[in-house]
Design goal:
This protein has 280 residues and is α+β, with helices and mostly antiparallel strands. The chain folds into two domains: 3-11 and 115-277, Nucleoside Triphosphate Pyrophosphohydrolase (Alpha-Beta Complex); 16-113, Transcription Regulator spoIIAA. The chain contains eight helices and twelve strands. It has helices at 3-10, 62-78, 108-111, 162-174, 178-181, 233-242, 248-260, 271-277; strands at 18-23, 26-32, 46-49, 52-55, 89-92, 101-104, 114-126, 129-135, 152-155, 185-196, 199-211, 228-232. Strands 7, 8, 9, 10, 11 and 12 form a six-stranded mixed sheet that branches. Strands 2-1-4-3 form a four-stranded mixed sheet. Helix 6 crosses helix 7 (248-260). The two termini are 21 Å apart.
Length: 280
């Protein structure tokens, strides 16, 4: 196991297995070739061809497109072809901030829609030494049970700003007051593209750092995380580098943290490949 192994695992994808998903002339996703036939059952919503999937002509407004995709999405979910239904809309567009239509989060991988999220590293400084607050996901969690996680993490739903979402997630997951969370610094974004059992994860994570006072102890409020532990950064690095104890994309967020704080420097044999691999 190595830092590069985690990056490679998050980018295990052969785009030759997919056809583009188009809204008008714009590509908004990718659908796996062996799954696209399921959409032939919806001729009023989609045009299915050998080399592409497109929304049907006449679906010209965000509302019309969203309703059409939702009809298919519910049928796909009933067939067990999606993640568990969340009732959480995501924006679909060719770039962040654009909304050509909205889609239920559970079917984002099926359609290969680029999804966005926010992750935050909560850390404590003691002189030159850094420590990071690390939570664990409960064994009862339906996704990635028992895995270690970032201090705060969540998907980016439609209708919320990034900071607004970060504040919400930090309250729910770490019990942090909005006045504290608003001190978090935006420090960049990482991206990866991963072929998944139900389609494609084409994700961008907006990353934040929040330096916390030692007396502030995060505590979970929504049941999605267990106890938080404050680990020296050296221990976090060792666990990331040698194991798969963390949820898969959290490894990338932490590797980025190590690079930005000089814990992985230019002398590391894989430095250039690590930096390049975090932005695909």
């Amino acid at each position: 196991m190595s830092f590069l192994d985690h990056i490679a695992a998050c980018n295990a994808c052969d785009l030759g297995n997919f056809v583009p998903f188009l809204a008008g002339d714009e590509r908004v996703g990718r659908v796996r070739k062996d799954l696209v036939h399921h959409l032939a059952d919806f001729p009023d919503e989609f045009v299915v061809a050998a080399d592409r999937l497109a929304l049907a002509p006449g679906l010209e407004t965000p509302r019309a497109r969203g309703r059409a995709v939702d009809r298919a999405a519910r049928a796909l979910s009933a067939r067990g072809l999606t993640e568990p239904w969340r009732g959480e809309p995501y924006s679909v567009g060719t770039r962040f901030g654009e909304t050509l239509f909205e889609i239920e989060r559970a079917v984002v991988p099926f359609f290969g829609i680029r999804a966005y999220g926010i992750h935050m590293n909560g850390f404590v400084r003691d002189g030159d030494r850094l420590s990071v607050w690390i939570p664990r996901r409960p064994a009862s969690q339906p996704t990635y049970p028992g895995k270690l996680d970032n201090t705060v993490a969540g998907g980016q739903p439609a209708g919320l700003g990034l900071v607004e979402n970060l504040v919400k997630e930090a309250q729910e997951e770490a019990g942090l007051a909005p006045t504290i969370t608003r001190r978090a610094r935006p420090v960049g974004a990482i991206s990866y593209r991963l072929e998944a059992p139900l389609g494609l994860r084409d994700d961008v994570i907006f990353v934040y750092d929040l330096e916390l006072d030692p007396e502030i102890v995060p505590h979970n409020r929504d049941g999605e995380l267990e106890d938080f532990q404050l680990w020296p950064a050296d221990k976090v690095m060792d666990v990331v580098e040698r194991t798969d104890a963390f949820k898969f994309n959290c490894n990338l967020v932490l590797i980025d943290f190590f690079v930005r704080h000089g814990l992985i420097g230019g002398e590391h044999r894989d430095y250039v490949d690590i930096v390049a691999g975090l932005h695909r």
